Amino acid sequence: MTEKEYIIHQLYNDISNLENQLRDNHEKIARLKKAESGISNELSELVDHKPLVFAPELTSYTWQGKYAEMFLDIRNGINYAYTGIIQQTEDLLNDISKKISELEAMNTSISNTISSKRSQLAHLKA
Predict the structure, then answer these.
(1) I want to staple 68 with a disulfide (CB 3.0 to 4.6 A). Which of 51, 63, 82, 92 is the partner?
(2) What is the pTM of this model?
(3) How many angstroms separate the CA atoms of 21 and 97, rounded?
(4) Sequence ranges of the domains in the chain
(5) With contact defined as beta carbons under 8 Å apart, do 8 and 93 qualify?
(6) Where on the tree of life does the source sit, at the highest rank (predicted)?
């Protein structure tokens, strides 16, 4: 095998590996977008239901005393947990979005590299 044939063979291997990586990244992006959509829908539902933590409203006319205060403390604890879950979910969605952007940037770079290697290949074959 001549040096030129070796380089051509190596370029074909590189292109094949890069195309596999590109395909894998596209699959990862699709899975991440699907997960992002599902999580976003669930987050929306969670946010919509958060006001229910304080329903029905308790006043001194409806309920008062030791148990009313304990109940209000529990409600506040649930509200705090809700807020924490919402924040964690928003952080997760941000992380997913960043990963999608990262993979898309990688795909752009990989596509450029593939084009470059194909150009080298065409030049060597000419």
Answers:
(1) 63
(2) 0.84
(3) 20
(4) 3-125
(5) no
(6) Bacteria
